[in-house]
Design brief:
Largest sheet: 3 strands, antiparallel
Radius of gyration: 21 Å
Helix content: over 70%
Shape: elongated
Length: about 200
């Protein structure tokens, strides 16, 4: 897709979002705003090298934690300009884990950033702070997910790769992401609603 076309789409998205915001039509404002921003973050992240930086950060975090736990790992690039590979040494051979866009957390970061930054009823400072917390927690969740895979491979061997990556790792990451969404959105929303109800009762 051409850059100019993407620019036009972003301008149209911003105008539509502004229209709903000015007219206080909150549901389409929130849906279109959050979904559009998520796509923008993902596209910009992939086009500017942010995705690669996230992959490097996740791989480095897993490597550092693995070394601290006494699990032998190495990091290298399979080819110039390619994404990083996390390698777990074992008694026989090596098992390689490729850190892709799924492991970088770019998709989850884009989605939750859109959900939080466009959430109506919160001031700008609260939305920015919560988004920053979501980015950090998503990064840590990715590190934990890969660490679960590394530990499983280390103690159970290559034969556990499919179950550790496809089932255990994804289940752990899914649970963590759901917990992040719930923690950052549900309790604050309930507190906001309670505050508005209490103020309404006081005014009456």
């Amino acid at each position: 897709m051409d850059i100019w076309l993407i620019g036009v789409l972003i301008v149209v998205w911003a105008l539509v979002v502004a229209f709903f915001r000015l007219n206080r039509i909150w549901l389409p404002y929130y849906i279109i705003g959050s979904v559009g921003l998520a796509f923008i973050i993902i596209f910009v992240g992939r086009a500017t090298g942010l995705e690669a930086a996230l992959q490097i950060g996740v791989a480095a975090g897993v490597h550092a934690l693995s070394i601290a736990l006494g699990l032998p790992t190495e990091i290298f690039q399979s080819a110039p300009g390619s994404i990083l590979i996390l390698v777990i040494s074992q008694d026989i051979g090596w098992t390689m884990l490729q850190v892709t866009i799924e492991s970088s957390g770019l998709l989850e970061t884009g989605v939750i950033a859109g959900m939080l930054l466009f959430y109506p009823g919160w001031n700008g400072r609260k939305r920015i702070w919560f988004t920053f917390a979501a980015v950090v927690l998503t990064y840590l969740s990715n590190v934990i997910r890969l660490m679960v895979i590394v530990i499983t491979l280390h103690y159970m061997g290559k034969s556990s790769l499919l179950i550790s990556h496809t089932i255990i790792g994804r289940a752990v990451f899914f649970a963590l992401v759901v917990a992040i969404y719930w923690f950052l959105m549900t309790p604050p929303t309930l507190r906001t609603v309670k505050h508005e109800i209490d103020n309404g009762q006081m005014k009456s």
